[in-house]
Design a protein that fits this description.
The complex is a heterotrimer of chains A (132), B (113) and C (238). Chain B is built from four helices and no strands. With 113 residues, chain B is mainly α. Chain C contains ten helices and seven strands. In chain C, helix 4 packs antiparallel against helix 7.
Chain lengths: 132, 113, 238
């Protein structure tokens, strides 16, 4: 386990012991991590997405050349990954709204399962649309 | 406004923008999955979006919701995982909100106008 | 299966290390039995806390194989890893010595969250009427059995990431009082629990609700506090 320092009263550094991954092996924690990581990835992607579309200001050809560039397999895989992350972030987010606004009914683990399921479903739908 | 009120408002604006985004994202994902079949070209995108004021309204609202939702989330991450102070994370959040709004509206304008 | 357990026990303060002991395995053995055996037979200088040893007081909470538990209510057979056990003090609290932590900050936060009752009636007034079936009373009852063992506090990553965070136990207590129709301190209490270090820092990781030995779900109360704070803020009352 690792240590971390805090400032206590009178500015003294008080060290505490921290948990390691063994304390985090439960579904609600994985749901939190998936939500946070997918959020970071989407936040990083979004400006790029806006910028590419903004290239249409330079005319259809400019947009088209960027889209051709993005036709490469690595990019398609990246797009697919983002669709999956978006589906996960969306469903996980709905779970949080349910927890925070609807009458309490536990940590809604059925919603965690749905998050995984809809992530897969979204990924499949997009993959099939790309290929088909 | 007290610190408590600020936090409460940030919380509910994040949740309200989340509810809006839930709707927008479902529509957007469904549209993209449908449109991407057989490949997607600039011409195809612009054919659907140009001079389409529904597109402008929908995606304009989408951009606003993103500009609210993304920075608040990132500010929390900066405070918890990067050790940023509240002031630093708030400043960063405002910057990101402005950047997303500017880039986003530019993109909407680019495909509609 | 070896007749002995290999038990790693934390010695020292936050700066310290694990010492290993061989403890005979028994049927129906709890982790507290193991710690007691070590202190009585092998290492008299080992410091640890316990009291009731029957799951009522919460004094014996420690980190067992990485997870915060009541050691008197944890059977070795349920948590042993092969023949290994790792016993450490609770996380997120300063270590006084070995397995005993300084609980001061935990209870200070309870006080900072206004986790104490303030009423307006005196002994000369009639009894307050509290409907036992009301939603408020049901919400309060769901959280009222907390005995302050700090398992939830030790399990929470937000407590680790934000030293000021009041934590699940303090917020749960505040929630039970927010739902107490006799309490008169609601405005100050909501202000106390809704700041930077309050309910809004909770990310619904749910470790508190997963680990609470009394099956209390602080996540429920914290969600409730978020809603109340939002309503009050919208009305300009926060």
């Amino acid at each position: 386990m690792s240590e971390s320092a805090r400032i206590g009263a009178a500015g003294r550094r008080i060290a505490v012991r921290r948990n390691d991954s063994r304390a985090r092996r439960h579904p609600a924690w994985w749901a939190f991590l998936a939500h946070r990581v997918s959020g970071i990835a989407l936040a990083a992607f979004l400006p790029l997405h806006f910028w590419v579309l903004g290239q249409a200001l330079r005319g259809e050809a400019a947009l088209d050349s960027l889209l051709r560039f993005a036709d490469q397999l690595l990019f398609k895989f990246g797009e697919w990954g983002l669709v999956v992350l978006l589906a996960i972030h969306l469903t996980g987010g709905l779970r949080l709204l349910v927890i925070e606004f609807l009458p309490w009914s536990g940590l809604r683990k059925n919603w965690i399962a749905a998050t995984a399921g809809l992530g897969i479903a979204g990924g499949l739908a997009f993959a099939l649309a790309l290929i088909g | 406004m007290s610190a408590a009120a600020t936090q409460a408002r940030l919380w509910y604006w994040q949740r309200i923008s989340a509810m809006m985004l839930a709707l927008f994202v479902v529509v957007h994902l469904a549209t993209i999955v449908y449109a991407v079949r057989g490949g997607l070209s600039g011409a195809e995108i612009l054919a659907r979006t140009q001079d389409n004021w529904w597109v402008a309204a929908f995606y304009g609202a989408f951009v606003i919701a993103c500009a609210v939702h993304v920075p608040i989330g990132l500010a929390r991450i900066a405070e918890e995982w990067l050790g940023w102070s509240g002031r630093a994370s708030n400043a960063g959040a405002v910057l990101i909100a402005l950047a997303l709004a500017v880039l986003g509206f530019r993109a909407v304008y680019a495909v509609v106008a | 299966m070896s007749p002995n357990l290999r038990v790693s026990v934390w010695r020292g303060t936050t700066d310290g290390g694990f010492s290993t002991y061989e403890v005979p395995r028994q049927a129906s053995q709890t982790v507290l039995d193991v710690v007691t055996y070590i202190q009585r037979r092998l290492e008299p200088s080992l410091s640890y806390r316990f009291s009731c040893r029957v799951g009522m007081c919460g004094s014996c909470a420690m980190t067992v194989n990485g997870v915060a538990r009541w050691t008197c209510r944890t059977h070795v057979s349920k948590v042993v890893d092969g023949d290994s056990l790792e016993i450490a003090p609770l996380s997120n609290l300063p270590v006084i010595k070995d397995l005993a932590t300084d609980m001061g900050e935990f209870f200070d936060k309870w006080a900072r969250a206004k986790g104490r009752f303030r009423g307006a009636r005196t002994r000369h007034d009639a009894f307050a009427r509290v409907e036992p079936d009301s939603p408020e009373r049901a919400a309060a009852n769901a959280g009222i059995e907390c005995i302050g063992c700090a398992v939830c506090y030790a399990s929470c990553d937000v407590v680790a990431w934000r030293p000021d965070y009041l934590g699940p136990a303090a917020l749960n207590r505040a929630w039970t009082l927010v739902n107490d129709v006799r309490d008169t301190d609601q405005h100050d209490r909501l202000r106390a629990v809704a700041g930077d270090a309050g309910c809004h820092a909770c990310h619904t990781q749910g470790s508190c609700s997963e680990r609470c030995p009394k099956a209390i779900e602080p996540t429920a109360g914290i969600s409730g506090l978020k809603r109340m704070a939002a309503r009050r803020a919208m009305r300009g009352e926060l």
